[in-house]
Design goal:
With 186 residues, the chain is an all-alpha fold. It has a domain of 88 residues. The protein has nine helices and no strands. Helix 6 packs antiparallel against helix 7, helix 6 crosses helix 9 and helix 8 packs antiparallel against helix 9. The chain is globular. The two termini are 38 Å apart.
């Protein structure tokens, strides 16, 4: 967002012109200047979010690229990415083909970390995972994300009870009930 790097794959559609100095200067200028910079800031942030989501979801993107995109989405608290991140909750950084010279700034589970950093806006997406997925790993990670966001087993249980009460599909109800039962073991 604050730099002019453009990947080869996106060179025609990505041009970021805003830099941190523009943002700082706009806070000392008039309201018209602030509005212009603010509009540009939001537009470029949205563009960056969409491009990172594109990398995350692109089957041609490497594991590393997808994990890096997830990491940035979390660092920037991109709530717009919660559904896409929740759909990739089992994505883990594969270090088998990477030579590491120092500890990387990216964790082994960048998607779960990103969902936690996004916080409350991620909750509907991870509850949807619990209601819709039979994949044990997706369910386990979704429940862990809920707990890490709330930090309180009782709140997690209340959220699951509320979701269970609102759900009309019997299969989804059974999955949510299983998650509620599993939350007792957190």
């Amino acid at each position: 967002m604050f730099f002019s790097y453009t990947s080869p794959a996106q060179s025609e559609k990505s041009v970021y012109t805003l830099n941190p100095n523009d943002v700082i200067a706009s806070t000392h200028a008039n309201l018209q200047t602030f509005d212009k910079v603010s509009d540009n800031f939001h537009a470029q942030r949205k563009q960056l979010c969409m491009e990172l989501i594109g990398i995350l979801n692109d089957p041609k993107s490497s594991n590393l690229s997808q994990c890096e995109a997830a990491c940035y989405l979390g660092e920037m608290r991109m709530s717009e990415a919660a559904d896409d991140l929740a759909a990739k909750i089992t994505l883990r950084l594969d270090l088998r083909h990477i030579i590491i010279l120092h500890l990387p700034a990216i964790s082994a589970s960048p998607v779960t970390d990103a969902l936690v950093k996004i916080g409350n806006p991620s909750i509907p997406a991870v509850i949807r995972n619990l209601a819709e997925s039979d994949d044990a790993k997706v369910r386990e990670l979704s429940l862990k994300v809920l707990y890490r966001i709330d930090g309180d087993k009782d709140i997690v249980r209340l959220r699951l009870q509320k979701a269970l009460k609102a759900e009309t599909d019997s299969t989804k109800q059974a999955r949510l009930q299983a998650a509620l039962n599993q939350s007792e073991k957190l």
